[in-house]
Every structure is written in structure tokens, then in C-alpha cells.
Amino acid sequence: MKLFALLAATSAFAMPAAGFAQPVDPLAEVAAQEERTERVAKQIWDWAELGYQETRSSGLLQDELAKEGFSVTRGVADIPTAFVGEWGEGGPVIAILAEFDALPGITQSSSASRDPVADKHAGHACGHNLFGAGSLTAAIAVKRWLEKTGTPGRIRLYGTPAEEGGSGKVYMVRAGLFNDVDFSIHWHADDENSAAARTSLANRSAKFRFRGVSAHAAGAPHRGRSALDGVEAMNMMVNMMREHTTMDTRIHYVITEGGAAPNVVPDFAEVFYYVRHSDADEVRALWERLEATAKGAALGTGTTVETEIIHGNNPLLVNEALAKMMDAKLRELGGITYTAEERAWAEEISKSFGDAAEPLDSAARIQPYDKTLGYGSTDVGDVSWATPTVGVRTATWVPGTSAHSWQAVAASGNSIGAKGAQLAAQAMTLAAVELFTNPEMRTTARAEFDASRGKDYEYVSLLGDRAPPLDFRD
């Protein structure tokens, strides 16, 4: 790490508060927590709790904050596992986001070869165990820096459940928990290091529940009305609809219930849909067409259908002033360097990618800065419309790894993942310190934010007024 360059470049070193003979190194505060980062990340990885069920994972983060003197408000926004931890007084108020939910249906040990874990039903295939741990470390490092320098301001850690399909942050935004936040900082696990100004797709999901009439499929088929026929008819029409949508559209589904025996006409079936687009208004327009296919399918199969919206996220609102600042911090820090043991492990993982493998040395590089569209979706999007927001991605996974894969689960439970989380904590800490000490940066970023939203902006979630779906993973 280029420590001397950082000493010269970071405003925290150049501007110690009155009464302090020596500047305070915020990176030293991150380094002092390396063991905590790895321990917390591994524990949350072991638990692998699903959205809105992350009782132990959320509790661990809360307990760690309380030990450091944060005041912790639990169960915010009517979500038992959501929380806000705060330290400090005065302003600015800077939020760091923490996630901790796992994905269902994918398990893996920390082995470099495919090794599902028989007694687990979920895995951290998106690295949210690292997200939570790294953000915790950053929040504590910033708190210690504020305390030692006497800098006025408040640091908050937002514990945000159920990012994967539950939109936990949206309910927190809707509840007004970001109304007094000046800036928000987040990060994400990845297979590369980047602070590019990367936006995302808006999305909405729902479960479509068809109900019919059961009967003996051979003895009395004329008496039955198959709910599964309703689901399949809807899917067929949606797949034809795909031909007549714009390029940014993404539609995907899984049949979550389709009957239990072929000789019983199923009287209930369910399909779970996601619709995505770069424009939230286009998601709404596509949604009307999706609901029309459901109604048509029910009409044509003699069934009925009901719809429950599960989640919905607005696209990320990019703030380039903040993104360029974060990019500069990341370049000061550099990328990830493997030990000999980690490199051997990474080489084994890399073999599983075939032609999609990437050079392992790319983990040590910082990707070029640009403004780009990411085709994923995140509830950070709604936060970014409530307050100026900036993010960073670090190489927690072996280069070439796709999110939501067994390889991502393995690396998220490995020392490589913990290294990436520690790098993210460093970058977020430096960004927070910059925002606390640089009023010109705060003014520039806020002006860009206000201009991007427009003077008549009014927040509207894609969830409507529904309550948090605490049982959607049951």
C-alpha cells in the first residue's frame, strides 16, 4: 500500500483538529480491525440466512456496533432485522450501508471444486456476508477517526435486510430513515476493483397465484381446471411478449408451485416473475402488459389469478462527483494481492470457468473509470434518490466469477473474500473522511444530485404501500 502517498493525498492527514499534535491515520483504524472483518464475514457466511430471516447475522452486526459505543435502533421500518447504528453529533451525517442476506437454492463449501453442503439450503453467492462485515469495519474506523480528531459529524451504519428480492432498503427509504442523511456510501463484492459510475436496472417482482379445480386427471378430466395450465399459458404469452420489448428489458420467472402428482389436476399453481428496465416508468408499462397476460391466461384456462407484488427497486442515480472521488481513493489504495496459497486456490477455481477465465493478476488492478449501465438491480437505487450516494466494488472473488454462482459462495467464505472486504472498508473510510473534511466536495456533489433529480422530483417507490414481505422466503 502506498502509505506515504496516502499521507500526502488524504485531507484527514493534512488537517488534524486543534489540540492534536499528530494527524490521525484512518487507514490504521481499518487495519486494526482486520481480524474482526474476517471473523464477522465468516460467521455470517456460515449462517447463510435468507432475506428477512437474518436474525443472527443482523444481531451480530448490532452487537459489534454496541461494543464500539454506537447507539443502535433495532427493528426499524417494521422489519425485525433492520437497524440503524449511530455515533457522533452535529453534521454532516454520513450513512454506510450493510447487507447480510444469502441466496436460496445454492450451497457450497469454501473448497475450490464443486462441493455442495448437504445440510444447508442457502449460500452467500452474492457476497453479502462480506458486504456486512466490510461496512461494519468502515463505520467503526470512521467513528474512531471522528473521536480522535474531534471532527463534528455523525456516522451511521444502516443494517439493510433482504436485498435479494425483498427490497429492505426501499421500506427504510419509505419510512424516512434517510431524510436527514447528507451522503450514503455502499460497496459490493465482485471479481474486479472498480468505482465506475455504474447505474442499474429498475425492477419489480410478483407472485402470480392461479387457482383451478382438482379432479382425477384420467378418470374425470372434464371436471378439472388446471391451475398449472394457467401458469404455463401465462409463461407462453410472456415469452412471446419478449420479442416486442426494448433492448434494456429483462424478464425472468420460476414456477414455485405446479402440483404434486401427474394424475391429479392441480387446483393451485404459482409463478414468480421479475421485470427489469433502465427506466422505472418502462417497468410500470411492462408490468401492465404482464398482468394482462395473467388475466388472459386465467380466462383461457377457466382459472382465476391473484397477484402479490413482492419487491421493487428504482435504478441507481449516479453522482459523478462522488464516483470520481471514490475512484481516486481506490487508485490510491491499489487492488488485491494473493499469497501463494491463495493463488493456488484461485487457479483451481479458475479452471472451472473454461474459456471465461480471466487473468488472476487482474485482481491487483483498478478498472478504468467510466459511466456505464449495469444489468443487475439493487435497492440501493432507492437510497440514491433520497440522498447523494456512491459505491465501490472490490475483487472479493476470483477474476471471471459470476455473482450468484457456487464459485462466488466459495470465495465469499475464503481469505480472498475477506481481503476484498477489507479493501472496500479502506475505500469507504477514505471517502467518508473526504466528505467530512471537504465542504467544496459536499457542495459540488449535492448540486449534481439536485440537478439530476430535478426541482419537481417526488419519490415514488415501485412497491406501492405494501408492508414488508417478511415471509416471502418461507
List the helices and strands and how they pair.
Layout: H1 3-9, H2 11-14, H3 26-31, H4 34-47, H5 55-67, E1 71-74, E2 83-89, E3 93-98, E4 103-104, E5 122-123, H6 128-149, E6 153-159, H7 168-174, E7 183-190, E8 197-199, E9 202-211, H8 227-241, E10 250-257, E11 268-277, H9 280-301, E12 304-313, H10 320-333, H11 340-351, E13 371-373, H12 380-386, E14 389-395, H13 406-412, H14 415-437, H15 439-453
Parallel strand pairs: 3-6, 3-7, 7-14, 8-13
Antiparallel strand pairs: 1-2, 2-6, 4-5, 9-11, 9-12, 10-11
Helix pairs in contact: 4-5, 4-6, 4-14, 5-6, 6-14, 8-9, 10-14
User: Which parts are unreliable, with pLDDT below 50 for 5 consecutive residues or more?
Assistant: 1-21
Q: What profile does the largest beta sheet have?
A: 6 strands, mixed
Q: What is the CATH architecture term of the largest domain?
A: 3-Layer(aba) Sandwich
Could you state the order of secondary-structure elements as H and E?
Answer: HHHHHEEEEEHEHEEEHEEHEHHEHEHHH
Number of distinct helices: 15
- Specify the helix fraction band: 25-40%
Rg over C-alpha atoms, rounded to the nearest angstrom = 24 Å
The CATH homologous superfamily of the largest domain corresponds to: Zn peptidases
CATH third-level topology of the largest domain: Aminopeptidase
Main-sheet strand order equals 1-2-6-3-7-14
Write structural notes for this entry.
The protein is α/β, with parallel strands linked by helices and 474 residues long. It has two domains: 3-200 and 315-453, 3-Layer(aba) Sandwich (Aminopeptidase), CATH 3.40.630.10; 202-310, 2-Layer Sandwich (Alpha-Beta Plaits), CATH 3.30.70.360. 40% of the residues lie in helices and 18% in strands. It has 15 helices and 14 strands. The chain has helices at 3-9, 11-14, 26-31, 34-47, 55-67, 128-149, 168-174, 227-241, 280-301, 320-333, 340-351, 380-386, 406-412, 415-437, 439-453; strands at 71-74, 83-89, 93-98, 103-104, 122-123, 153-159, 183-190, 197-199, 202-211, 250-257, 268-277, 304-313, 371-373, 389-395. The strands form four sheets. Strands 1-2-6-3-7-14 form a six-stranded mixed β-sheet, sandwiched between helices. Strand 1 (71-74) and strand 2 (83-89) form a beta hairpin. The chain is globular, with a radius of gyration of 24 Å. Residues 1-21 form the signal peptide. InterPro entries: Amidohydrolase (IPR017439), Aminobenzoyl-glu_utiliz_pB (IPR017145), Bact_exopeptidase_dim_dom (IPR036264), Peptidase_M20 (IPR002933), Peptidase_M20/M20A_hydrolases (IPR052030), Peptidase_M20_dimer (IPR011650). Residues 205-296 form the Peptidase M20 dimerisation domain. Keywords: Hydrolase, Signal. This is Amidohydrolase.
